[in-house]
Design goal:
alpha/beta
Amino acid sequence: MAEAVIEIRGVRNQFGSTVVHENLDLDLFRGEVLGVVGGSGTGKSVLLRCIAGLRPPQGGSIKIFGKDALNCSEAERRMIDARMGVMFQDGALFSSLTVRENVEVPMRTLPNLDPGLRRELADLKIAMSGLPYKAGDNYPSELSGGMRKRAGLARALALDPEIVFLDEPTAGLDPIGASAFDELIRALSETLGLTVFMVTHDLDSLHACCDRIAVLAEKHVKYTGTMADMLEVDHPWVHEYFHGPRARAAVATLERTH
């Protein structure tokens, strides 16, 4: 069986009196690309931030690489964090830094890393993200939305992570740009052996990138499976999502390949 690099059991996320997740279970397996979907308010990004250590849950357990991520020492947590990268929906780049300097930020946590080598590594990550070399000298305000997303991805890859979290990576992109980003994610996953946790609403991305899909509904992970599995689910929201007007192209492609 595939190794579970993330194991979530009984997680509860709550804001005031509003419970977003209750008794949520989910596994992420090494080397897979998992797409996480759900209706508005189901807490897709909340779950991502919870797993990535950006906000603690109000209950439950999270194991990452076999370690108790919620009750480990600070040193152990830093070791876990060094093996993960996060790309936020808006890129979350520092506006006062160039793209290269943004990518170098995580590398500054590494002791005794030569500045020249750090620059070379940043340029490598920029190239891996599909940006031209000269983009390293640009500031975020000088980039298009698609290029900012790629810069955010380059920063997420800065420390050679084993797991990458992507929050709506194709949101706001035109169809050509979104398709190119899908191809990039798939290629990086296959060539680097990355494990990817991807929050998305894009059905084309689910079809192009994801090995498995997890559906958030009714405060927990209601269903997991392949795209073909999702087409057989009779839950009202799931059926509408995977069989609605926007799903037609992805469903037609799936049917042609089978």
